[in-house]
Every structure is written in C-alpha cells, then in structure tokens.
Amino acid sequence: MSEKKNNLIFVVEDNKIYNKLIVEFLAKNKFSNVKPFFSGEECVKAIKSGETPDIIIQDYFLEKMNGVDVLRKVKQINPNPEFIFLTSHEDMEVAVNTIKFGAYDYIIKDKITLDKVLDRIKKIMRVKSLERRNEEIQKYIYLASGFLLIVIVFAILYFVFDIFGMNT
After folding, report:
1. Mean per-residue pLDDT pooled into runs of 10, the chain (168 residues)
2. How far is it, in rounded angstroms, from Cα 125 to Cα 145?
3. How far is 60 from 63, CA to CA, in rounded Å?
4. CA angle 58, 61, 66 (to 5 degrees)
5. What is the CATH code of the structural domain delimited by 2-131?
6. N or C terminus of the chain with fewer C-beta within 10 Å?
7. Which residues pair with 84 in a beta bridge?
8. Structural domain boundaries of the chain?
9. In a 10 Å sphere around its CB, with 0-12 CB exposed, 13-18 middle and 19+ buried, how is residue 28 labelled?
10. Which residues pair with 82 in a beta bridge?
C-alpha cells in the first residue's frame, strides 16, 4: 500500500492524549501525512486556506461546534474528504445524522477502535485508488476512440476518392 504517504489525513480530536494516540497509531501503520487538530475551527480554517485532506477522523463532541457542523462546513468548501467519526457517544440518532450528512462511518471508541479506523482508511484508499484508475482508463478510451474515428474518416475519404477515380 504505497499510496499511504500521498493521503493527507486530518485528526480532529480535542482530547490531546487521544489525539496523540491516534496520530501515533497511524504513524506506526506507515501513514506519514497526518495532521492533528484540536478543534473543528482549526480544521475548517486549514481547509479554507487550501489544504485538501483525503480523510478526516474526528470526534463528534468538540468544544465550539459538533462533528456534524464541521462536516457540513468542510463539505461546503470541499466535498471530497471522507469523514470517519470516532466518538464515545453511543446515540443512534447522532450516528444516523452523521452518515446522512456524508460521513463514511461512525465508530464508537472502545478497545479495538483504532483497528476499525485503520480498516476504514484502507477501504477509503482502495475506493479512491479505483476512482483514479477509472479516470485514467476513461482518458485512454477517449484517446483510442478519437484515433479510431480519424482512421475511419481517412478510410472513407480514401474509398470515396478511389471510387470516383480521383486518386491518381
């Protein structure tokens, strides 16, 4: 999985110890492009300034704004980042709302939480990789179609000129 270095991951967690735990866990799993944030405002500000994360891992309960507020503001600026909510809040309505507003997943913090986060990151990266490959294949198909069209046009022109004796 050599694409890990290319994927920018934001970690938005106001608990500094848990934030550091997540960042170090990701580093241990060879994710080298990880930025920690301790508030939703910091995250939104970074995205407004032009940073483009692929994945945002965030807590639902943050000091000034909740996770859905962050998600909605980020998606208005850039719809591409995938969100993984990582929270101790076990409210089904909150979980449904995060997914409804575009989160990729909602994970309850427990003993195996970080393994779940790693699994979701890998799934997102596979999808993004397939999307990039699909775009490249589509470009090649368009180029091949254009080339084929040119060959057909020249063949038709050659045939038409040959029938009317215009070839000398």
Report:
1. 69 91 90 94 95 92 87 93 84 78 80 77 89 92 93 85 65
2. 30
3. 10
4. 85
5. 3.40.50.2300
6. C
7. 57, 105
8. 2-131
9. exposed
10. 55
Residues 6+ apart with CB under 8 A from 128: 7, 54
Which amino acid makes up residue 103?
A: A
List all residues 6 or more positions away from 145 whose beta carbon is below 8 Å from its beta carbon. Answer: none
Q: Which residue has the tokens 């045939």?
A: 159
Rounded to whole angstroms, how far apart are CA atoms 62 and 13? 7
As a 3-state breakdown, the chain gives helix, strand, coil percent values, each rounded to 5, of 60, 15, 30
What confidence score (pLDDT) does residue 163 get?
67
Contact between 76 and 47 under an 8 Å Cβ cutoff? The reply is no
Q: How many residues does the chain have?
A: 168
Residues ≥6 apart with Cβ < 8 Å to 40: 12, 58, 62, 64, 65, 66, 67, 69, 70, 73
Report how far residue 94's alpha carbon sits from residue 61's, in angstroms, rounded to the nearest whole number: 11
CA end-to-end distance (rounded Å), the chain: 60
3-state SS track over 113-129: HHHHHHHHHHHHHHHHH
pLDDT of residue 159: 79
